[in-house]
Amino acid sequence: MTLFSENAMSRRERKLLRRKGKKYRPDRTIEEGAGGTSAAGAAEPSKEHARKGKANKLLDFYEHKYKKSMWFTIALLVISIMIICVYTAVNGEVIPRGVSLKGGVTITVPFENPIDVKELEDSLRVQFPQASVNVRAMTSAGERIGFIVDASDVDSEMLLDAIRSHVGEMNKFSLETMGSALGEAFFKQTLLAILIAFVLMSVVVFLSFKTFIPSFAVILSAVSDITMTVAVIDLFRIRIETAGIAALLMLIGYSVDTDILLTTRVIKREEGTVFYRVMGAMKTGMTMTITSIAAIAVSLIFTQSETLRQIMLILLIGLIFDLPNTWIQNTGILRMYLERKSRKKAKETLAEYKDENVEVVEAEYEEAQEADKAEKEEKKAEEKKEEEKKEGTKEAHHTHPTEHRHPAKHEEHHAEHHAEHHTSHDIKEHHEK
Amino acid sequence: MNESLKKILKSARFIILVVFLVLSVVAIHPNPNAEGVAIRNIARNSSASLAGIESPSPTSSPMSKERILSLNNEPITSVKDYNDFVATLAPNRTVQVKTTDGFYQLKTKPLYNITYLNETETVTFEETVLVNKTFKAKNGTTIIKPVNETRNVTKEVPKRIVEVIGTEDIGFSVYEAPTTNIKKGLDLQGGTRVLLSPETRVSSEDMDLVIANLKERLNVFGLSDVVVRPASDLEGNQYALVEIAGATQEEVRDLIAKQGKFEAKVGNTSVFKGGNDVTYVCRTADCSGIDPRRGCGQSSANQWFCSFRFSIALSPEAAQKQADASKDLDVIVDDNGNEYLSEKLYLYLDDALVDELSIGSDLKGRSVTDIQISGSGVGATQQDAMFDALANMKRLQTIMITGSLPVKMQVQKIDAVSPVLGDDFTKNAFVMSFAAILAVSFVVFLRYRKINVAVPMIFTMISEVIIVFGVAALIQWNIDMAAIAGIIVAVGTGVDDQIVIADETLRGESQKFGWKERIKRAFFIIMVAYFTSVAAMVPLLFAGAGLLKGFALTTIIGISVGVFITRPAFAAIVEILLKK
Question: Mind listing the pLDDT tens digit for each residue in B409-447?
């Protein structure tokens, strides 16, 4: 236990230093949040402090203005829906479809000798005037490794022969042809598959949490992930093949993982404040998403297969969107839900108490408010001291940010405060050991 | 530390993981030093087939496939070795083949080139004709019975020169020896996949007939590493999926796309059809090949054509029909004085006219069982035209042997990957998976900075990959690109879950919860996440003619292995290592 805590502290410190200058907000927030409870900043006091002030502001914003920050994801979602609508209106389809969902021929040829892609395209267009032919380069790790010919209304063998006459005999190539009727059917079915997947996933989520709003928040997060990903696909006109649809399905399973973690931690646990639990879940969830993004980004760089490239690209886009959708949108909905619930509960209990013994309750209430005040003052004094010294000290950060700005939640607070102090003491103790 | 290690080794959940790991390694059967080259296919009537070597069954596991170890005591270690050796072979020599299954001796055959001259020569050959003969029975009555009679026929044909130009291929189709039992999918080993659908809905019995017939066609054609299976999609449409390892699409497209309804007509009367009416199809050199009487010709500057012919035997019923159809026809005489019947024999394949043959006047009203079928091929050079003609002949022969499909099939989708590219993809997939594992390990180390969390995590991750491959090898599941994506996703989810376990246990430490409680909490999250992922994958098992089934199934197997085998073991390890 001792070993762990010590390690954890120094780890946070190092992380803090390493993260310097990174703009990623929610990510930074956890690091700072975690750091805030501990004795970070001993190494580079002044700089560390200045940064911490900024980070604390962010953390503060995330903690208290979470409703405001939710406008960000709402705006993202609205913009995404608009992009999809415009794309659909202009192109008559929801998503740019590749050969395997539309019909046609794709021939992929890794270079044996590099050729001019544009030249090949012109030559093929002259040879097949009635067909639509597109030639694009294929890259892996920034290097051009081949070319891809997409065509419709042309016989695959004739096209292959035409390419052969241009580039010579090919040892390496892959060919995919798709009848247009089947492509159309495939597309419809994969859409159906996505719909069924959503329904099944929703059933699992509802059965697991058995409460409406938290379950709804998880499903909304998955819907937002997919909508935003599709919007990016539309924006950049990435041609989606069957593998891409599979990736969207995979995204459903992937993206709800962090939401489930968050909901479980926040709804089903009691330790600390709601915000404390959110921060804990975020730390775990971020690690999950970052490992996934690392694995996917590396695969994306190394792969030579178009199938894999598409799957990885879609997962990458989706997981990046999953960050705000989980840690701003889903978290916000959960906190609003819990706030309303606890306010209701507090009112009820207060009413009950008042009926029985008004004086006692009021006295307790005042007492608690005084305690709050005293704490605030203590904090202020500390901050002043800090400013004077212009360096971070252990004591300055040992109080964890709590929700004391909501008097209505007073009852809950008291208990939470307790837990809060308890934990930070715990950590401190370990640290000292 | 030592004590912890002992505890881990004694932990039931860890032992289960190790047992599964061992079983997986046995199933995968890795042998990087597998010698020789594996036999994919043996060509019919080739030297190899005559020596008694058989094509391997397409369902046998990769490591049990017969491998060529040496040829004439020269060790063969790669496809290049094999090709180099075969290139040196002279005709009519014996070759000693040592394989993993035994010794064979085969004799190489010469390869002929036939050139047709503009002169003609007279040749005499035997012809079998069905003739009605009158017999006198013992009781004095006369019986008329059709009898096969052999007679010598003399005809004038173009003169030809036959020369030996090399050695006929000895008939092996080989590939680099597999080093594991993991079956590679089409895009990783190269080959062709064709998705066909019947033009109209057919009963499941008819669909079975289609599948059996397609399989037979490909086997008769000379391709044995073939999987043909029925498939369907969410709307209940029927499909037949054909996967042929190592073949190119040009070879097979026409063969499987044809319904194979072969019909011969005299005038408008149907005389015989492919399948039951045909009792024998000649495929040997003496009665099939380039038509010696018609040969090859040039129709324009770069357009050659060649004719082929092969003989078939008709059933007596079909022969009788032919006799009935021709008995009322008139005899006409052409410019050269040859006598023909007024109607020709028309050959149709899938309702398209393939060829028409003049019927000699001597066949009028006679039931003949031996008939010559002919057709042609075209090409830019004489050589090309000859190849095309012979390929057409092979297809036609195959279709005549196997009969027609009960319904016309339409080609919906063709995927082809050249074998060289497949090898590239395999290597690439290896490099990529390795890099992905490294990247994940790196992040995990950065996050935890603790050997006793990070190392078990990476160990669990790698065991998961091994067990998924083990399951794939055991159930002979083809690993293709999509399946690799599935494995990457499953491993990614696995790492996610381990992070949940690690964090729950580390957090629990400061919250003073019992170990059971911490693990229980972690597993609630894991199980909900598991069921949502499975729920998302299930529709893919049925959609799109099963083409994404590989991906969906691999993902489901992968995450199931993770949830039920590796994650409990990881929880046990972490529990023991941190509980001090």
Answer: 888 888 888 877 888 888 888 888 888 888 988 888 888
Q: Is B447 on the interface with A (CB under 8 A)?
A: yes
User: Which of B414, B435, B521 is the closest to A298 by Cβ?
Assistant: B435
Chain B residue with Cα closest to A297:
B436
Residues of B in contact with A297 (CB under 8 A): 439
DSSP helix/strand/coil, B157: strand
Confidence of residue A333 (pLDDT cuts 50, 70, 90): very high
Residue B413 placed within a domain: no
Say if the ipTM goes beyond 0.90: no
Angle at A188 between CA A185 and CA A190, to 5 degrees: 105
In terms of pTM, does the model score above 0.90?
no
Q: How many structural domains does chain B have?
A: 3
Domain end: B86, B109, B132, which one?
Answer: B109
- What domain range is B568 assigned to? 2-30+420-578
How far is Cα B202 from Cα B199, in angstroms, rounded to an integer? Answer: 9
**B143 at interface of A, judged by CB pairs closer than 8 A:** no
Check whether residue B353 and residue B473 sit in a common domain.
no
Neighboring chain A residues of B536 at a CB cutoff of 8 Å: 197, 200-201, 249-250, 252-253
The ranges of chain A annotated as CATH 1.20.1640.10 are 182-332
CA distance B273 to B263: 4
Task: Kindly report the CATH class assigned to A104-178.
Answer: alpha beta
User: Is it true that domain A182-332 has CATH number 1.20.1640.10?
Assistant: yes
One domain, residues B59 and B134: no
Q: In chain B, what residues touch A253 (CB-CB under 8 Å)?
A: 493, 529, 532-537
B235, B411, B536 ranked by CB distance to A252: nearest:
B536
B381 or A289: which leads in pLDDT: A289
Residue with tokens 């279709």: B399
Kindly state the tokens that stand for B254.
């026409």
- CB contact under 8 Å between B540 and A292, yes or no, is no
3-class state of residue B434 by DSSP: helix
Interval B166-216: pLDDT, tens: 787 888 888 888 888 888 888 888 888 888 888 888 888 888 888 888 888
pLDDT band at A223 (very low <50, low <70, confident <90, very high): very high
Mean pLDDT calculated for residue range A148-154: 83
The verdict on B431 and B496 lying in the same domain is yes
Mean pLDDT of A200-216: 91
Note whether B441 and B544 are same-domain residues. yes
| Option in B449, B489, B555 nearest A7 (CB) | B449
Q: The domain that contains B13 carries what CATH number? A: 1.20.1640.10
Place of tokens 């001993």: A42
Cα–Cα separations (whole angstroms), residue A177 to B177, B214, B417:
30, 20, 12
Residues in chain B: 580
